[in-house]
Specification:
Elements lengths: L1 E6 L6 H15 L2 E5 H7 L7 E4 L2 H6 L3 E6 L1 H10 L7 E5 L9 E2 L3 H9 L4 E12 L4 E4 L2 E7 L5 E7 L2 E8 L1 E5 L7 H4 L11 E7 L9 E4 L4 E5 L5 E6 L2 E3 L6 E16 L5 H9 L11
Parallel strand pairs: 1-2, 1-4, 2-3, 4-5, 5-6
Antiparallel strand pairs: 7-8, 7-18, 9-12, 9-16, 10-11, 10-15, 12-13, 13-14, 15-18, 16-17
């Protein structure tokens, strides 16, 4: 069996998690595929269970499972480079919140044992697809973002659902997110949390000019068209944090739910609402904490 390793070498916890993974792999006769660049950046001892690849993409392509060590940012990177591969992904959290990397480092060996026994289910997360007016196509697991660039002026952004105008937003920007991305920038901007797999698009304005302009939840069975007309402010368009240059205005993009999916491994006993309670500290009252 082959496991590919994708990790964020900037996080200091990654090295220890990787050491434990290597030790487990040697004991269980599992081959680990690691890109040469990642291995050199982490600077860890070589082992007989490790095979080197030219890139992270090659490691994923040749593996049976993908082990992601880091935070949700590392998951998004993995999603971006493996869009068409649809390999099962296990996220090991060495970041902060980690809504998608919800296996803790302390449970690493137990989690890997479950993979060997094929004792897991797949949590299928669909990408959003954005088609630009020039024909370019981008995919996002979390969100597409339209926001101002180097300006104090608000931006005017129109959103149409099917053939119907939703609103022309006057705001710092606009977020179009998936249910997976509801706990990311959408949540920070006052948008709702939506259970993954719900099949919706979330439209959340960033600091809108009018207080009555609220986030909106749309069923993902019709295209959402975002239009940005010529205006004073320059506009950023990004997908999961990757900026795409807008060469000129007006700018138009059609957003739909993609058939492509990202398969997160869910282990026995893991529960989405338990993750929310732990990560967001729901139900915890500091006044009841004993000194």
């Amino acid at each position: 069996m082959k496991f590919s390793i994708i990790a964020n070498p900037a996080k200091f916890e990654v090295k220890e998690v990787l050491r434990k993974t290597i030790s487990w792999a040697e004991q269980n006769h599992v081959e680990l595929l690691i890109s040469k660049n990642l291995f050199s950046e982490i600077q860890i001892e070589a082992a007989s269970c490790i095979s080197f690849t030219a890139s992270d993409e090659e490691a994923i392509r040749e593996s049976d499972y993908v082990i992601v060590i880091g935070g949700d940012g590392t998951i998004l990177y993995t999603a971006r480079i493996s869009t068409n591969m649809q390999k099962p992904i296990l996220g090991i959290n060495s970041g902060r919140l980690g809504f998608m990397t919800n296996t803790q480092a302390d449970d690493l060996e137990i989690a890997l044992d479950h993979l060997l026994k094929k004792d897991y289910t797949l949590d299928e997360r669909h990408f959003l697809k954005a088609k630009l007016q020039d024909g370019r196509i981008f995919y996002a697991l979390n969100e597409f973002l339209f926001t101002r660039k180097d300006s104090t002026s608000m931006v005017n952004i129109s959103a149409l659902y099917g053939e119907s105008l939703i609103n022309t937003y006057w705001a710092d920007g606009l977020i179009v997110s998936s249910s997976t991305g509801s706990t990311a920038y959408n949540l920070s901007s006052g948008g709702p949390i939506v259970v993954p797999g719900t099949g919706v698009l979330l439209v959340t304005p960033i600091n809108p000019h009018t207080l009555t302009t609220r986030p909106l939840v749309l069923k993902a069975d019709a295209p959402l068209t975002i239009k940005v007309e010529q205006q004073e402010s320059e506009i950023f368009f990004s997908y999961d944090g990757v900026v795409c240059e807008i060469e000129q205005l007006p700018f138009e993009v059609e957003i739909t739910k993609s058939d492509l999916a990202f398969n997160l491994i869910q282990l026995p006993g893991q529960d989405y609402f338990e993750t929310l309670r732990k990560k967001l500290m729901w139900g915890q009252d500091s006044r009841r904490t004993k000194n």
